[in-house]
Every structure is written in C-alpha cells, then in structure tokens.
C-alpha cells in the first residue's frame, strides 16, 4: 500500500508527502478581505504539508459568504496574499487557494448586495454577518445572461491567485455553496440549460473548471466535491448519475485533481474513484461530524485507492501534523470555540510537539 509519507506528483509539482491540509475558513482577514501577517504565520507553520489548500476565498464581492473571509478580486487583496504565499514557499511548502463563491449563503449586511443563486430559494440555517448570525435571505435568481460573468469570476480569481504567488487553485464545488447549489435538485429549480436533468445541473461546475483551466492551466486547477452532501439545505437527486456525469465531463479537461468529501456511502465514493483516472484527494470523514480524520482513516483510504489524504481539524490543531503522524506522536485536540473568533489565540498558539526527556 502507498504510504502517506511517500512523495507524489500533482500537476507539475512534486509533493514530499501525501498529507494535504484541508481548506478551513478561519475568518481572520480584514474587513476589505485582505490577508494579514497572522495568516502568513499560520500557513507558514503548516508548510510541511505535501500541499496546503487555503481557506475559502471569494472571487467577487457578491460571492463573499462571511465577514472576515479573504478575497481575490482586488489588487490590494492580491498584494496582501503575497506575504502568505512567500511565507509558505520560504518554509518549503506549496499552497493552493480555494475559490469559494457563496451564492445564496451570504447576506446583504456583509456584502451590500443581494445574494445570488440558481433560483430564488433560500438556504436553511443562519449565516454570519457583521452584527451576528442571521437567517439566510432569499437570493436573486441569476438571469441566464448573468451566468457567464459568475463562471468567469472563478477564472479571473484564479489568474489573480497565480499573480499572488499561489501554486494553483481549488474550486469550491462542495458544501452547499454556488457550484454545489447548481448541482442540487432543490436549490436549482431552473428550466433552462443549467437546471433539470443531470447533464444540465453539472454544466455550471464544468464551465467554471473549463474557464479556470483556460486561465491558468489544468495542472494548477482542482475542484472539491461533496457528493450527496446536505449542507445549507441542498439536496441532490440521482447522486451517482450526477457525479458520474460530472466526472465524465471533467476528465476531458484533465484538472490536477478532484477532492472528495466522504458525504456519500463508501460504495458510491469507490465508484467515483473508479470513474476518475486522475489524482484523488480524499477527505475521509463527514465534515463537521463527530469523527476527525486521523492516521487510521487516512490509511483506510490509501488502501482504497486515494492518492492524497486531506486533514482538517487535525492540521488546525497540529502545525507539525506530518511529523506527528510519521512518528506516531499524540495529536493535540482542536478548540472549536476559537475556530472563528478572530485574533491569534487558537490560531497561532498551537505548538509543535514538545518532546520531554
Ligand atoms: C474551522 C473549519 C473551517 C472550514 N472551512 C472550510 C472551507 O473554507 N472550505 C471547505 O471546503 N471546507 C471547510 N471545512 C471543512 C474541512 O475542509 C474538512 O472537510 C472537515 O473539517 C472534515 O475533515 P477533518 O475531519 O479532517 O477535520 C472547514 C472545517 C473547519 C473545522
């Protein structure tokens, strides 16, 4: 079986190990969506990952889901990311930006704009705003003529990501955000070529990947997916058919990887593994579920044919996760109360393993 600590190729990169840091929003950016020196330190501390996938980053103003998330649509944001990408590279790491358009999971109090989505169907749940959590509003359904601009926002942000020094980008196609809303059968009620049968529901995702591949090249483009996931009220019918169709279309574009979450039965995920000839990053547990990804889950999925394994909470709490896993050292627990609280506490304060005599 492949070891977690063997090198791997990813696009044009050689990763020294197969441990990927999963994307995690930590809402420590400025009100203008600028990355900060603390963010540079946080990612630099974790540069021994084979690959870091950075936190969800909005490609335009309307796509911002939360106050405190960083953006990639202004020159100032590009300049601010430089300190982060430089810090990771100086420490020997590799960093992709996760491009996340929130779609209907957003709020006018955060963006000054009415959120958009495939249809005028609100998400379930409450979204963070500058004055605290509020119910998600009814989005404005995108007109057919507006869809190309939203698709292009991923490609333009990808170009900006490369300008900012990122090694590539991951499109956020998971967890109930815009791409996932188009894949969904209850958030997407469109009757045009972007809604209805599976070949239409995958179109937005495929066109977003195609535009990004055109902009920065296939070897620097990945996509994250959560087959069957039910985040923010999205539901998907015909999960296997939907994702088989999506992968069939994506194969032609040859992106560097797909990043799957364990949101469906293992049997379904294995079928998708077989349908995908390229690199598979597997995130082996249900996001926000009770169980975290650890060595056992990673080895299970390497045995099932995953190429790389992503770790979220374990990496959040253990900057030296690779060394800890390699040496079977205990992992520090993460503190949920500091995920989104801002500041350096619970952000820069997790230490490397301290050996005692
Ligand atoms: C604080 C936090 C923030 C997260 N933010 C994102 C995000 O921005 N984008 C994303 O795709 N997933 C996000 N996730 C989900 C993780 O990438 C991962 O799928 C999840 O934590 C499960 O993996 P784990 O058991 O290894 O933590 C987040 C998870 C956590 C804990």
Automatic annotation (TrEMBL):
The keyword Oxidoreductase applies. Residues 3-331 form the NADH:flavin oxidoreductase/NADH oxidase N-terminal domain. Keywords: Oxidoreductase. One of its GO terms (cellular component) is cytosol. Pfam families: Oxidored_FMN (PF00724). The keyword Lipid metabolism does not apply. CDD domains: OYE_like_FMN (cd02933). Its cofactor is FMN. One of its GO terms (molecular function) is FMN binding. Belongs to the NADH:flavin oxidoreductase/NADH oxidase family. This is N-ethylmaleimide reductase.
């Amino acid at each position: 079986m492949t070891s977690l600590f063997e090198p791997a190729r990813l696009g044009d990169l050689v990763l020294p190990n197969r441990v990927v840091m999963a994307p995690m929003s930590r809402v420590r950016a400025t009100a203008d969506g600028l990355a900060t020196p603390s963010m540079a330190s946080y990612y630099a501390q974790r540069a021994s990952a084979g690959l870091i996938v950075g936190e969800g980053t909005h490609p335009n103003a309307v796509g911002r889901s939360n106050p405190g998330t960083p953006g990639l649509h202004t020159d100032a944001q590009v300049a601010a990311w430089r300190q982060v990408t430089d810090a990771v590279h100086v420490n020997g790491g590799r960093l992709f930006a996760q491009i996340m358009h929130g779609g209907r999971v957003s709020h006018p109090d955060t963006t000054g704009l009415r959120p958009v989505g495939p249809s005028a169907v609100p998400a379930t749940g409450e979204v963070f705003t500058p004055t605290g959590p509020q119910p998600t509003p009814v989005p404005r359904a995108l007109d057919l003529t507006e869809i190309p601009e939203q698709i292009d926002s991923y490609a333009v942000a990808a170009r900006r990501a490369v300008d900012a020094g990122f090694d590539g980008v991951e499109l956020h196609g998971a967890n109930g955000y815009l791409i996932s809303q188009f894949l969904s059968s209850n958030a997407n009620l469109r009757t045009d070529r972007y809604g209805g049968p599976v070949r239409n529901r995958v179109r937005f995702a495929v066109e977003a990947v195609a535009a990004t591949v055109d902009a920065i090249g296939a070897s620097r483009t990945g996509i994250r997916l959560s087959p069957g996931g039910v985040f923010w009220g999205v539901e998907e019918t015909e999960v296997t058919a939907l994702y088989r169709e999506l992968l069939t279309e994506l194969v032609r574009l040859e992106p560097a990887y797909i990043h799957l979450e364990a949101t469906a039965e293992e049997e379904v995920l294995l079928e998708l593994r077989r349908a995908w000839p390229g690199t598979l990053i597997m995130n082996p547990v249900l996001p926000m579920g009770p169980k975290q990804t650890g060595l056992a889950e990673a080895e299970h999925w390497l045995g099932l044919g995953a190429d790389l394994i992503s770790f979220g909470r374990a990496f959040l709490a253990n900057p030296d996760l690779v060394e800890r896993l390699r040496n079977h050292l205990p992992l520090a627990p993460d503190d949920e109360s500091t995920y989104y609280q801002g500041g350096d506490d619970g952000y820069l304060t997790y230490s490397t393993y301290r050996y005692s005599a």
